Amino acid sequence: MRLYSNCGVLVSLVLLVILSSCVSTGRISIQVSVPAKRSLPNEIQSIVLMNRSMTPEFSDLNQDSLENLFIRKKLKLDKVFLDSIAADTTLQALGNAMYESGRFDLVIPLRRNLPNVNLSNKGQLPSLTLPQVKQICNEFKTDALLILESFSEKVNTSFHVEAGFSNGVPVKDYNAYVQVAYHSNWKLYQPLEKLMMARFEVNDTIFWERDGFTLQETYEKLPTIKEALIDGAIENGENLASFISPSWKSAERIYFITNNLDADKAIEHLKKNEWKEAQDIWLKFSASTSPSLRSKIEYNLALASEMNGNLKEAVDWARKSFQSKYSKAAEDYIRLLNSYIENK
């Protein structure tokens, strides 16, 4: 009889461990904000973008003419191009990327090109005056003015053929490489009592490398020179945007399934990204006398607070969850949220 009783106690303990370890959770994919490397002042909420880079030497370079030049040079180019479409594209790419960050309102006027008679971009253009900047910002109702001061792209290409054998048969391997090195200078003006100004410079490269068994096959795999210039311009604008505005990256979050039917009605709202509605349901159970249920609810409320943009409130709820009942999830979440706050 004593042996039977001990076995019963052992079975009960095992069941208790199993039940306590089987905590139900779900996972969701979210987008989290990545702070800018150089954040602009908080009072700058809206920006007008203008282009001052286009000297008289700029033109809308013809795609066919560029390809004829590329072919005449036997796929070997080393030349600086001043393409007006690329210069305008880099401005629009910057504006789109900054707008998508959710941090700024952007205005790109129809008449966005300011005069520039500085041939070949030699030397620096004089900065605008406070009255000039105020006039532009007042006209477009923005807090600041960001101007593309200079823009150029250097195309460098290479081409070579290697001879070899395949199964004893002589073959040729064709290889072509196209690189676009883009360079731009920008000025940000903020019309306060005293004109505030910041300068930005962007330098980087984008490249394509293609192989083929014939010259024609290899050439057709490459972008046209015009396409390469446009792609370089897009990357140029997006690079500056990632430097001065926040970006977004994919992340995963867990949430607790409480097995309380009324409380778990919030999950349907969670799946629809209706965080305010989910939060309202969970709040009704946040004072539960059950430490286990209360801890799960508080963790879920921390998640809702983060999704609603209130990181400090999210930390408070995560700490309450940790104090109500220890969980590794709450401990890790507190650490993650604090790291976001420190990097803002």
Q: TL;DR?
A:
This protein has 344 residues and is of the alpha/beta class.
Number of E-state strands? 8
Largest sheet: 6 strands, mixed
The coarse overall form would be flat
Q: Percent range for helical residues?
A: 40-55%
| Number of domain units | 2
Class by alpha and beta content = alpha/beta
Strand proportion? 25-35%
The CATH topology label of the largest domain is Double Stranded RNA Binding Domain
Give me the Rg, rounded: 30 Å
Q: Judging by the overall fold, what is the CATH architecture of the largest domain?
A: 2-Layer Sandwich
Mean pLDDT level: 89
Task: Give the distance, in angstroms, between the N- and C-terminal Cα atoms.
Answer: 66 Å
String of helices and strands:
HEEHEHEHEEEHHEHHHHH
Q: Note the total helix count.
A: 11
Give a verbal description of the structure.
The chain is α/β, with parallel strands linked by helices. It has two domains: 46-247, Double Stranded RNA Binding Domain; 255-343, Alpha Horseshoe (Serine Threonine Protein Phosphatase 5, Tetratricopeptide repeat). Helix content is 43%, strand content 28%. The strands form two sheets. Strands 2, 3, 4, 5, 6 and 7 form a six-stranded mixed sheet that branches. A two-stranded antiparallel sheet has the order 1-8. A hairpin with a 2-residue loop joins strand 5 and strand 6. The termini are far apart. Mean pLDDT is 89; it is low at 1-21.
